[in-house]
Predict the structure.
Amino acid sequence: MTDMHALGVALIDRGLACGRRKEMESAVLSLIQGLGQIDPDKDPRLTLCAFHNLALFLSELGTLVLARAVLQRAKPLYKRVGDRLMQARATWLEGTIDRLAGRPVIARRKLRKAQETFEELDLRIADRVEKELVALKALTDSAAA
């Protein structure tokens, strides 16, 4: 069982590395394979990280229904493992998916909530959320024209 878990960890690491290189298809495949091998009870934080990034990468590929389903599947882990930072990251990802899905009102609310938490935690990630809000404004402005 431990060997399978170690294989899963290696696959998740590979998936995260592929994601950093913007090799999204490989990242998704590796994360899915890794999640199938690890023991979530043995390493719930790694499991949460894998689910979160899987949802992120799926959203970047435009498969929003799947991204939302993965994020929904991870909700109990966010509550069990997640600290305030992870909760804010989940809210940010939800807002990003809503923005990409053309739900500007919901997206704006979630992105602002995430941004406020990041700012309270004094994290530079708040700037990235600001970019999401700017992209959302551009999208809604062009739709209104």
About this structure: The chain is about 85% helix and 0% strand. The chain has two domains: 1-63, 83-145. Residues 1-63 form one domain.
